[in-house]
Every structure is written in structure tokens, then in C-alpha cells.
Amino acid sequence: MADNEKRSLPKGIFWGIAALIIIFIAGAGIYIYGQANKVKSSLANNLDDFRSGITDLKNLNPDAAQKKFLSVASGTDMSFGDFISVLQSMFGGTGDALSGFKNLASGGVAIAEELSYFENNLSALISGSNGEEFLSHLKTTEATLASLSSAGDEISAASSKFEGISPGIFDMYIPAKLDIARIDDFLKSLISWLSAGTPRHIFVMLQNPSEMRPAGGFLGSYADVAIGRGGVAGAEVHDINEIDRTLSLKTIPPQPLQALITNWRTADSNWFFDFPSSAAQAVKFADASKLYSASSTIFGGAIAISPQVLADILNITGPIELKDYKLTIDSENFLGELQKSVEQGQVTGVSYPKAALREFAAEVFKKLVAMDSSQKQTFISLVRDWFKNKDLMVYFADPDMEKFVSYYGGDGGVYALPNDFEGDYLAVANANIGGGKSDLFVREDVSLESQINEDGTVSDHLTIDRAHEGNKGSDWWYKTTNQDYLQVFVQPDSQLANFSGGLEKKIYAPTNYAKNGYMADDFVGQIDSSTERIFNYPAAFKYEEFGKEVFATWSRVAAGGKTELVFDYTHRLPLAPSDGQTYQFVFEKQAGTFIPQSTSTSALPGIGAPRSYKFTISAPVGYKFKENDLPVYEYDSGNSDLSSGGMPGRLIVNLTLEKI
Asked: Are 242 and 292 in contact (CB under 8 A)?
């Protein structure tokens, strides 16, 4: 054999080495596969915990969020430490992603700690005694959010390295990342807003549902809350007439209001079902009044508070003694007693009929400042329910801040339907025009029977029963004949097929508006230009508002009386029904209403205009709904879960069609 001739291994040794290599590769593969599954499971669990922590933060539950984030941070080390060395050479960038993920969790812990600070110092924030410190913590929170965003970018950049382990696993993080970006943008705007050299003013609308208006109750009183350098610098309750007496603007009112008033004013600005539109109108009038323009005061936003909020606060703090009026105000009697003091004050001609309301508000403020830690936690837990149920609605004049509040459903805005909306929409809004304070005793039962047809049309049968039980009350102002302007918001391009029960009421302009120098409101003008009488039904008319078709009519019911209104209408879906197709029903409740848990008259007056809702949705022939395995879906507001705040302000029902 030549020296340069290649030597070959004996076959036995060759196959032995080959077998060892195969065993090693197989063993390593099994190990890596097992570790990869552990990573996959850990990633899924940790990402799920992180997302759950973000949800806890949005629900104002910092303690629960902090536990989730701490679990994620510690879990990152325990789950991946041993495996990183194995994967580093195989998956470049893995370490960056895991580092970013750990930073994300640590940032979440920091955010939760900041929220805990705000919770623990709620009384100081309300009283305004720690404004600069509050502002400093807001800045810290914003900086932490910015670092969270950077950590998220690291994860996103390296997420492709994990695709072989768990395809799409980081899709779970995307919603949280978007939430972080939105909150960060909002805080930047809020910090700038709070850092202004002069106090910012918020117009707090104390809505009175005894006299309903589309965005809630009549605006008879309000509070001017001044915020300076992160704290409440002052809060004063006023009669709305203090603004309107100094308002020189001459504005043409919406046509239905012309049955009652000649000039549109702040008291009647709560006219639109869309709260941001009503709030913007109220702020516009307030800014223009001499009461505020003389000092160049401009309101940067508005907050609507329903009686439910005050009832909940009184449940937390306990009753309030108004010694000058010999009154004990609690969560059950406050609305009736305060209304009585105002009515009696107007009859006797006292200089300020709402003095009791002003004193009550001052005492509530003191109680809020004095809350203990348990009361603070209860208060914060209720805030989410108030927003969800439209008992608390917020509007900001700053577009970026308003956009944030709107996205999370805190502004009471009307739901914007997508262009290809496959479903049905309903909202019923009442406006008391010349009906006194009767709405607390007018029960309204709304029943919708909706049939999805095989050809892609939807046939709706809407019944609204109204019963005035003020005759059983003790006070005369509740016994006034209820005169109601009723609006039914439905799908765009809906066609009214039948109507009964409404009253034809012709409204004539109380003055020559053009001759007397009144200006028209652009938005009201748009509604008026689309308004038309329905030829076959003289008592009804329709128009477009907030992307919806509106059927409107008048209703009148005397104390002890009843009336019924019926609307039959249809609309066409973009697509005909098919197996697996999704269908969505959206209902929006009017602010200022409440769902009595008793059908007895003793439940009235309550904390709002009493309502009940029943919705029945029927699938096309040959179909059923996947969600309940039945061809009919039913919703009854009387069965709404009180533990979660009862019926929400916006009810969304998602259904899936299945062929039988």
C-alpha cells in the first residue's frame, strides 16, 4: 500500500462511530425539542401573563397587575436560563428578545407601582395638596412607558427567531404594545396640559335625569373645577343660569327645542345623543359667556356625572348631614330631597334655590378627601363601571386626549359602524321638552324582535311602552304630563315599513331668526337639511345623525296614563347569510337611565329614568346560532349581572350562523 494512499476504517468501527453520532444527534435533538417545547410553553404563559397584567392596569387593579409582571420577570430567568446556551448558536438574537421581554415585565412592575401610588394618594390628589408630586409621578410613568415601548421593539425585531419554536406566538403581544403606545401618547399630552402656567378648567355637568335629554339629564347645575400644576386648585358649584344670564350669543336652537325656547343656551346644550358633541356645545357657550370670557377662562374639557355616581359615593362614605336644612342625605333619597329643596326654594323666592345642592357638593368633596384605604379601593373599582355604563363620561377639547378617551369608550360617543357592518344597531333617546321633572316616574319598556332573512334583509319590530306613574308619587313636580321627543337610531338606509303611536306636532319658529340676527349652528343645520317627513306616517320623520338613520316622533303621557309606540323597519346586510358568517348586534343605552331591579312602584323614584330592554334575534330559516345552539338569541336587561355593573352603556352581541 502506498504511503499516500488513503486508509479506510474497518467497517465495524465506522458503523460504531456512525451509530454514536446518530445517537448523539438524536439525543441532542430530543433534548432541544423538549427544551423548545418548554420555551414555547413558557413564552405562551409569560406573554399571556403580561397581556393579563396590561388588562389589570386598564381595569385600575395595580396590585393584580404587579403580581403578573413579577411572575413574568422571574419566570423569564427560570424558564430560559439553561436553554440560552444551547440555542445561542442556532437562533441568533434570542438573547436580545429574552432581555427585552424581561425589561418589558420589569417596566410593567414599575407602572403598577406608580398606579399604586396614585391609588394610595387619591385623597391628596382630590384635595390638590400634592399637585407637583403627582405631576412628577406622571412624568415617571410616561418615561417608563417609553422604555416599555423600546423593550417591545427589541422583542418584535427578534421575534422571527422564535417562529420555528412557536409560530405567531408574539402576536399575543401586539395588542399590549398598541395599548402602551396609546397610553404613552395620552400621558405626554396630559403632562403638557397639566403643566400650563395658568389653571385648567373642567366643566362638570351635574345631569338631572328627572328631565331627560339625549346625552343624559337636563343641565341645571354644573361645577367649575380648576386644575393647576397637577392638583385641584378649586371647585365651585353653580346654577346654569349664571352662565346663560351673561351669554349674549344668539343661536338658533334645534327645531324640537323651538317648542320651548327661542335662543339656544347652555342649559339646553345637552342635546346630542353623542356626548362629545353635547359637551363641546356646552363648553362653547360657557366660554362665550361674560361670566368666563371676562377673565379669559376657557374650559379644556367636560365631565358628565350621573346620579348613580353620587349614589355609589354615598354608599362608600355614608350619609351626609345638611344641618342648615335639617336633612340627612343618603344614597337612596339624595336625588328626591335635593330636587325638593330646589323646588321649594323657587316657590318661596329665596335668593339662591340651589344652596342645598352647593352645600351637599362641598360635603361630598370633604368625604372623598377623608376616605380610608378600603374606601379608596372601592371607589377606584367603581370608576370602570361608571365609564362602562355611561354614568361617567369625559370629553377633552385637546384632540389627542379626546382620541384616547374615545378609543377606550370613556367619552360616551356614538358607536361608529364599519362600512361592511354585518349586523344591526339600535339606540333609543328621549328628550323631555316641557314635561317638568316627570321622567323619574316614566317607565319605558323597549322590546325589539329582529329577524334575519334568507335574502340578506333584516326585519325589525320595535315596541316602546311608556307608563307614567307619577300619580303615585307625593310631589307635584313628578306628576306633570310627560312630553317627550323620541329618537330611534338605527342602521343607515333603514326603511320604515309601519309606524303607530306617535303624535304629530308642528313646530313654528318663535321669532324671525334671520331678521333678528340669530346664527345657525353648522351641525344642527346638517341634521335639519336631511330631515324629511314620512309621507305615510305624518307623526314620524327621519334624518341622518352620527352615521345612523334616525326615526323621530313626539309622545305625550299624563300621570297615571300609558302609551305605546311601534316601529317596523328593514335594512339590507352587505352579504346574504352563510354558514360560519358572523353577525353583530349593537345597542347603546341612553345616559341617565337605570334598570330597576323591582317592577313595583315603590322602586320609584330611582336614580334615573327607569328602563327595561328585551331583544330577540332570530336566525334565518335553516340556521341556528353557534353561541347558544338555538335559532333564537334573547337578551333581557332584567337578567343583567349586577356584580359587573349591570347592563353596559354599549351592549355588543356577537353571533355566528351555523346551518342546521
From this structure: no
- Left if phi > 0, otherwise alpha if psi is -120 to 50, otherwise beta: which for 229? left
Radius of gyration in angstroms for the set of CA atoms belonging to the chain, rounded to a whole number: 31
Cis check for the bond before 605: say yes or no (omega within 30 of 0). Answer: yes
- The reported pLDDT for the residue numbered 427 is 99
- Per cent of the chain over pLDDT 70 is 80
Task: At 110, list the grid cell.
Answer: 414599575
Q: What local confidence, expressed as pLDDT, does residue 114 receive?
A: 78
* pLDDT value, residue 25: 42
Which of the pair, 243 or 165, is modelled with greater confidence? 243
Residue with cell 400634592: 130
Distance, in Å, from the CA atom of 329 to the CA atom of 306, rounded to the nearest integer, reads 17
Looking at residue 224, what is its pLDDT? 97
Cβ atoms of 551 and 542 within 8 Å: the answer is: yes
Cell numbers at residue 464, please? 316602546
Strand ranges (E), 299-440: 299-305, 320-322, 327-329, 392-396, 423-432
Q: Which run of H or E residues covers position 522?
A: helix 522-530
Phi-psi region of 295 (alpha: psi -120 to 50; beta: other; left: phi over 0): alpha
Q: How far is CA 13 from the centre of its chain?
A: 75
Measured CA to CA, the distance from residue 546 to residue 179 in angstroms comes to 26
Residue 59, classified by CB atoms within 10 Å of its CB into exposed (0-12), middle (13-18) or buried (19+), is: middle
Which of the pair, 326 or 260, is modelled with greater confidence? Answer: 260
Using CB atoms within 10 A of its CB, is residue 551 exposed (0-12), middle (13-18) or buried (19+)? buried
Rounded CA gap, 487 and 467, in Å? 18
Conformation bin of residue 164: beta by default, left when phi > 0, alpha when psi is -120 to 50: alpha
pLDDT at 27 over 60: no
Is 361 within 8 Å of 618 (Cβ atoms)? no
Look up the pTM and report it.
0.86
The closest of 99, 83, 78 to 34, measured between CA atoms, is 83
CB 211 within 8 A of CB 434: no
Q: How far is the CA of 113 from the CAs of 2, 56, 606, in angstroms?
A: 79, 13, 39
No. of helices (H) and no. of strands (E), the chain: 15, 22
- Does residue 86 have a pLDDT over 80? no
Give the CA angle between residues 255, 258, 260 to the nearest 5°. Answer: 140
Q: What is the pLDDT of residue 162?
A: 55
Report the pLDDT value the prediction gives residue 221, as an integer from 0 to 100: 95
Percent of the chain that is helix, strand, coil (3-state, to 5): 45, 25, 30
- Which span out of 23-27, 37-41, 342-346, 597-601 was modeled with the highest average pLDDT? 342-346
Residue 132 CB neighbours (<10 A): 10
Using H for helix, E for strand and C for coil, what is the string for 258-297? HHCCCCCCHHHCCCCCCHHHHHHHHHHHHHHCHHHHCCCC
> Residue for cell digits 438524536?
26
**Residue with cell string 386626549:** 401
pLDDT at 611: 96
Three-state SS string over 525-589 comes to: HHHHHHCEEECCEEEEEEEEECCEEEEEEEEEECCCCEEEEEEEEEEECCCCCCCCCEEEEEEEC
Residue ranges in 203-349 assigned as alpha helix (H): 241-244, 275-288, 290-293, 307-317, 334-348
Cβ pair 236, 224 in contact under 8 A:
yes
Q: Give the three cell numbers for residue 3.
A: 504511503
Please give the Cα distance from 392 to 438 (Å, whole number): 23
Which of 97-106, 238-247, 306-315 is predicted least confidently? 97-106
